[in-house]
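U., I forgot to send this yesterday:
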Amino acid sequence: MKKQLIAASAALSALFAAPAVNAAVVDPIDLTGKTTDSFSGVIASAGAFTDVFSFTLDKASAMTSSSITSILTALGGAGDIDFTQVTFNNSIFFDVETNFAGTTDVAHISGVYLSAGSHQLTVSGFAYAPASYGGNINILPVPEPATWGLMLVGLSALGWAMRRRKPQTQISFG
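Result:
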């Protein structure tokens, strides 16, 4: 009886198991000496997909924006992609939106601060037939603390000079 119960539970769990997903490591995003770069993914066959884009930053930066867009040609047909999840470093989630007609999926994020080092952008979804999507990433370098300190010293000196200056006004009753 116990063996039958174990076999039945194993069969039941196999019934609800997730299918294998192809996690493709796509060409890296090149942000060396640039503040923006584009990337794209091509899904050759229908089914679930996961694409991983990687890039490395030399300095801490702020991701001003990043967006990924899929525009379909026929609902449920060629070119149709539904983004299920788009993450950054497996923890920061993009906002995924679909328009009312279901023809465009857009994932976007902004205002994320990045440390120097390696980062990953992971795009997961379901393609109904061969399809593709594209996206871009925009970053700006974050000023170092010494730069902020120098700016504050300069503003303080400017304020001190303005307060120290004696007004050259003369009152006359004429």
